[in-house]
């Protein structure tokens, strides 16, 4: 019986779980039966056929990077025309001209949304053409975690991001590009665009980046080289895509955490939710927080921090329970009990 991608009950989810055992073993044939019919060599061949090739997992991020950069260049030109009414190559190297474009709501939408859509388009096409099926290829399935575990994991995400940012910030000075981004966010937030900005910066990467890195790349790598290396490599690619050195180092632990969530839950949705919560909270923190370290936080910011940290600690405890008590996705096992 065909299962809908969003509704597999926990006891039947392995049939659609992209991290579970190969389909040749899942679909009505036990490991014992496979060994009895073909022996170890037959089972080995069945597993090898089901393991995805590794090169698409590495080629697709390169294609996505190319489409992202090309779209960013095109949208930058369009944004200059929209905001300044003209364009010249000199504007692209002018920090003040870029700040003016990014400070415009229309300019910000052009610079953020279109490149992110271009980033995810190769992933959507590859998943659509996949013989595995679109939902299963991207891990857009129910998985085996209950919804409370999804929410708990998402609430924990800002703590991971903040701890990483504080650790990196104590060792390295914030880059000029990150400072300019903070100033742009603060300007939009103070002009009454805070909530739409938080939703925009939260939702766009939560869909586009998660589809690519945790949905397509990690799902394939986990089945090919195992979850440890798969999560590590996909998280490294995720971090490198942020291009700024400080940002790369700071978001790598976040990528690892989101990768573990996606693997342990058997679904991309908790990682998408966590990514959305982290980015949205970060925007609020930048806008509400002090501009320099010498300034004291406002009462609103102090209350905001207390709420986020409190919810994060509560979520972390529940996430630990989910990690400890809920089942680990089935690994591909090449040897099992002997045939009888």
Describe this structure in a few short sentences.
The protein has 340 residues and is mostly helical. The protein contains 12 helices and no strands. It has one domain (16-325).
What would your notes on this structure say?
It is a single chain. The protein is 73% helix and 0% strand. By secondary structure, the protein is mostly helical. The chain has one domain (16-325). It is globular. The model is unreliable at 1-15, 21-37 and 332-340 (pLDDT under 50).
Distance between the termini: 29 Å
Q: What is the makeup of the main sheet?
A: none
Task: Report mean pLDDT, rounded to a whole number.
Answer: 84
Query: What is the β-strand count?
Result: 0
| Order of secondary-structure elements | HHHHHHHHHHHH
Radius of gyration: 22 Å
Q: Report the β-strand fraction as a percent range.
A: under 5%
Number of domains: 1
* Total helical segments: 12
* Apparent shape: globular
Q: Return the structural class.
A: mainly alpha
Uncertain segments of ≥5 residues (pLDDT<50)?
1-15, 21-37, 332-340
Helix content: over 70%
Which descriptors would you attach to this protein?
single chain; about 350 residues; globular; disordered C terminus; membrane; endopeptidase activity; CAAX amino terminal protease self-immunity; hydrolase; transmembrane helix
